[in-house]
């Protein structure tokens, strides 16, 4: 049986993606597709926003599962290519009036893997298998402005930040980053709360300041995870990064 459904997005998201797909089809000289660019955009958004499976989408759009896989992958890779670079995001933070950003990390849940990969992708902190993503958030509105490629879930946030060269890049851009206790000892322009139970009055004041500014930053990844594809990603772990970048491009809108 087939039934109609809804996607909790504005038509601007559909138009944005459809325009990119039309331009891409023209660039590669694609003459005919079973679905129009608008239909392909709708299919990809249903997968990302609602987490609809390939089989369900294939039945709903009247195409094969392999075709759905190709269409979704094409749309995701196209959107991911338009996601802001780390340099562009730091320039944005450098011009926000405070030269300030929030550095945060999250682990996106994935299925268990086989062999050595199963242990590599297991996050002891979160007690599930996942992919580590790092992000930069503009504290003015709590908007996510950059997201990293994915690393195995066992990767510590500080190690991930160094792997992506976030700390040195922020220092070169003279942007101060506020982070949680997991980034303590990062150096550069990264500021994190003090650890420990017996803190001095000045240390407690410092922690309250950092946490009060970081509060809106929690919204950055919270918005990302309203896209149900991230409830539990069941594709290759290496696809989590492109999926996150694609969603960020959609969240930022046409100006991206």
TrEMBL record:
The segment(s) forming the DDE Tnp4 domain are: 103-245
One family name in Pfam for this protein = DDE_Tnp_4
Tell me if Metal-binding is a UniProt keyword of this record: yes
User: What are its cofactors?
Assistant: a divalent metal cation
Q: Which residues form the signal peptide?
A: none
Molecular function in Gene Ontology: metal ion binding
Q: Which UniProt keywords apply?
A: Metal-binding
> What InterPro entries does the record point to?
HARBI1_dom, Transposase_HTH_dom
- List each copy of the Transposase Helix-turn-helix domain by range: 33-81
The protein's name in its UniProt record: IS5 family transposase
Q: Which organism is it from?
A: Phytohabitans suffuscus
The organism's taxonomy opens as: Bacteria, Bacillati, Actinomycetota, Actinomycetes, Micromonosporales
């Amino acid at each position: 049986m087939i039934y109609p459904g809804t996607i909790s997005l504005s038509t601007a998201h559909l138009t944005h993606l459809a325009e990119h797909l039309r331009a891409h089809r023209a660039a590669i000289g694609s003459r005919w597709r079973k679905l129009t660019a608008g239909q392909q955009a709708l299919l990809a958004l249903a997968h990302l926003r609602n987490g609809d499976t390939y089989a369900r989408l294939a039945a709903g759009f009247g195409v094969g599962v392999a075709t759905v896989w190709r269409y979704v992958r094409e749309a995701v890779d196209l959107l991911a290519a338009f996601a802001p670079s780390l340099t562009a995001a730091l320039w944005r933070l450098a011009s926000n009036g405070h030269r300030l950003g929030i550095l945060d990390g999250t682990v996106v849940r994935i299925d268990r893997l086989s062999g050595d990969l199963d242990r590599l992708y297991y996050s002891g902190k979160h007690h599930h298998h996942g992919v580590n993503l790092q992000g930069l958030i503009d504290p003015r509105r709590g908007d996510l402005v950059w997201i990293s490629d994915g690393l195995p879930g066992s990767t510590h946030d500080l190690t991930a930040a160094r792997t992506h060269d976030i700390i040195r890049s922020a220092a070169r851009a003279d942007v101060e980053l506020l982070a949680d206790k997991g980034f303590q000892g990062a150096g550069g322009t990264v500021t994190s709360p003090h650890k420990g139970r017996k803190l001095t009055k000045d240390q407690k004041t410092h922690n309250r300041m950092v946490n009060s500014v970081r509060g809106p930053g929690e919204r950055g990844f919270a918005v990302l995870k309203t896209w149900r594809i991230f409830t539990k990603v069941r594709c290759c772990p290496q696809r989590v990064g492109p999926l996150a970048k694609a969603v960020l491009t959609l969240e930022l809108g046409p100006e991206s």
